[in-house]
Amino acid sequence: MLSAVDVFEAVAEPNRRHLLGLLAERDRTAGELVDSLPTLTQPAVSRHLRVLREVGLVEVRPDGQRRIYALKPDGLQRIDDWITPYRRFWRDHLAALHQHLENR
Amino acid sequence: MLSAVDVFEAVAEPNRRHLLGLLAERDRTAGELVDSLPTLTQPAVSRHLRVLREVGLVEVRPDGQRRIYALKPDGLQRIDDWITPYRRFWRDHLAALHQHLENR
DNA sequence: AAATCACATACGCTTGCGCTTATATACGCT
DNA sequence: AGCGTATATAAGCGCAAGCGTATGTGATTT
Prior knowledge:
The structure is a homodimer.
Chain A: H1 7-12, H2 14-25, E1 28-29, H3 30-36, H4 42-54, E2 58-63, E3 66-71, H5 77-103
Helix pairs in contact in A: 3-4
Chain A binds a DNA duplex through residues 3, 9, 13, 15, 29-31, 34, 40-44, 46-50, 62, 64-67.
């Protein structure tokens, strides 16, 4: 069995981020996605897609012998939720910076 | 030489996320952070802190023989910037869902 | 039904991560 | 100076990630 990957690990891989980027534009077949990563073989891309599936970042629907991949809407929200409390850090920091620039 | 890690990989490690969480509350000495991860040895935590330093997520200032670690304000912004274009996906999705619930 | 196409899985290999133990470095105290 | 304390680095190891080659599976075509 494949070790259950979490969203953070899934997104840490550059090729997988590339795939997500393409799927953000529009749905694509597995074949199109394979072609988009010419340095990788078809099985390699297929495995990346499997990881993205398993963490709920993408979903597949069959279309004849093709498989159409699509971005799952709320997949990345888990990362966004994690970042949220930290966001206030750089917001405060920027605010303080502006304050400083105005007062000099 | 240590392979130059990027922010995504840095944050993919659960222990490193744990460290960031503690530093979000307040600055801490390396020793405090070591104590916060009882399952790890001191060198292990030290290496995690090094990774977080190298990707710009934390910074250190010396205090006598102690080293005080602090969250760097804009470190996670790179991840946030990456997520931004995707955010509209689940926002649209939620909007459509609400629409659907109201109209039924 | 046989061949072909689109995609997934199996297997074996290499490389890099994260860990521990051992050691170095640097500061503080007596 | 000598010793404990605080932290970082070195060396070595096990394991899992990611890759390619080979093969399986199901749909399409002829």
